[in-house]
Amino acid sequence: MNERQYTKMREAAGFVAALDQSVGSTAKALQRYGIHEWADESEMKDLVHELRTRIITSPAFDGDRIIGVILFVDTLRRHMDGMPTAAYLWQQKHIVPILKIDKGLEAEVDGGRLMKPIPDLREVCEEAVAHEVFATKMRSFITGPGAGLDAVVEQQFDVAGEIIDAGLVPVLEPEIDITTGRKQETEQQLLERLRAGLDALGEGRQVMLKLTPPEEDDLYRELVAHPRVMRVLALSGGYSRGEACDRLARQHGVVASFSRALTEGLNVHQDGKEFDEALDRSISEVYAASIT
Predict the structure, then answer these.
(1) pLDDT at 24
(2) Does the annotation mark 173 as catalytic?
(3) Is the model's pTM score more than 0.90?
(4) Residues 96 and 70 sit within 8 Å (Cβ to Cβ)
């Protein structure tokens, strides 16, 4: 493990940018950016890489406010400014690279959507280590309390064990549907299951958690202080940037890991100055909420 990356991820003020839209969510990201047409999936990937490159290479995107960046595997395998993306992030920006590894979601069962199998997990982890990636992120989805939630958390910890064994830090993301009518009950059950999973981790093994901002402020504060937790991150989960930041600011010790909310207001037709200013405003707002 890179000790400098560990120290930054563990102690630095700031937040984690999520630029890991998969093939399924890339189209919406491009449309929000003002691009509505592409010939095929290959061109779509090229276009979203141009967007990510524009964001990451912007002077507004700095390592003083941004701790890490979650990348899609296609981005990891590409270059920025003549360097492999992960190397550019760490060597030029002093921002910790994190890799999204999940393959999408299964159908809902009993309030939970498990991750699809990751048959090449070992190979993906080896590739991440070769690129000096520090951590990996994997997302599940929870629509309410019940046995499905238990299954989601169990799967997250099972896969996390393999990732730790590969020399990486897993980011567990059991996202809760913000439209569920039983959100508070769901959050209480999730807290209990996460507590049990963390307590069962072996000595010296750590994870990060990426969670939906809860209805009860500071609900996850005990997780922030847990010795097996390196960092607790908050996703925006469909909230606007303003509401996501307001909710985040009330969660002590939690920092942002926003995707859609971070890129809100960016447009392909902005010139360099307009784009950098819009990105700087977004980063400033998210950073302020993360250090409150």
Answers:
(1) 78
(2) yes
(3) yes
(4) no
